[in-house]
Structures are given as C-alpha cells and as structure tokens.
Amino acid sequence: MSELSDLYQEVILDHNKNPRNFREIENADKHADGNNPLCGDQLKVFLSMEGDTVKDVSFLGSGCAISKASASMMTQAVKGKTRKEAETLFDEFHRMVLGELDPESEDTHLGKLKIFAGVLEFPARVKCASLSWHTMHAALEGEEEISTE
Ligand code: ZN
To answer: Is the entire prediction scored with pTM above 0.85?
Structure first.
C-alpha cells in the first residue's frame, strides 16, 4: 500500500507542477465551469468535438494539487475517445473514488487513473479528485455550470 501511496504522490506532484492540456480551446464546442466550494477548487473544462469524438480537451483554473492533477489526467484520458467512452470513464472513475468499484479486482478502462483510488483514504479529497470529471460530464451534457454541493 505504501508503494501505491508513493506512486500516487509522485504522479500528483508531477501533474500539479506540469499540468497537461492546461490552456483554453478557442471556439470550443462545449465548456463548463466546475466549482468545489468545500475546498475552493474552480476549473473550466473545454471540449472540441469531431462528430461523436472528443478531438481536443483542456482545462483552466485553480485549486488544490489533487483537483489540478486529476483534471490534467482527465484530459489525457478523454482525448480521442468517443462520447460514450468518455462517459464510461467518468462513471468508472466516479464509482472508484466513492469506493463502489475496486479497480484491482474488476475490469475497468481506468489504466493510470487507478492511482486515484488512493483518495478513498481521504474522504474530503474525493470531491477534489472528481471535480474535473463532473465538469467534463456536464460539458458533454450541455450544462455550463456544476457545483459539487
Ligand atoms: Zn481540492
């Protein structure tokens, strides 16, 4: 378990320092603002669609290291996926951080995202980790604002 925690910390620190796809997409097809008042995380997710496929995805905002690292990894995971695949990832990620899905014993598409199973040990951080996913989901659904409260 401590091995997983080390990896978790390393990945979070890396993505927090060098967030991937941290930019605005001009003329984005979809975007949404996500707000986690419990922690103060605020981010905006941009999506550029090509038919049913997420051609490009990015985010901007400020927040704690976990929210930022999670957003960074969310963009990497969702880019190039179909809308349905992106929604499947959202569902799996969401259930994993709530403890409803065990990525070690169940088949998932989560890959590297499995490290966020670590937030289960820190209930206050669950909303930080899932904020970008809720925001991406809202953008896909055509909603422009979400709050975790
Ligand atoms: Zn946070």
So the answer is: yes
So what's the pLDDT on residue 5? 74
- State the residue range of the domain holding 89: 3-141
Give the integer Cα–Cα distance in Å for 149 and 147: 5
Domain CATH for 49: 3.90.1010.10
* Residues of the chain above pLDDT 70, percent: 97
Q: Which two tokens stand for residue 59?
A: 């985010």
Q: Is residue 12 included in any domain, yes or no?
A: yes
Is 105 a member of any domain? yes
Of residues 101 and 149, the one with the higher pLDDT is 101
Q: How far is the CA of 52 from the centre of ligand 1 (A)?
A: 31
Flag whether 148 is in a domain: no
Can you list the pairs that 97-105 forms with residues at least 24 positions away whose Cβ atoms lie under 8 Å?
97/126, 97/129, 97/130, 98/126
Distance 126 CA to ligand 1 centre (A): 8
Q: From the CA of 62, how far away is ligand 1's center (Å)?
A: 9
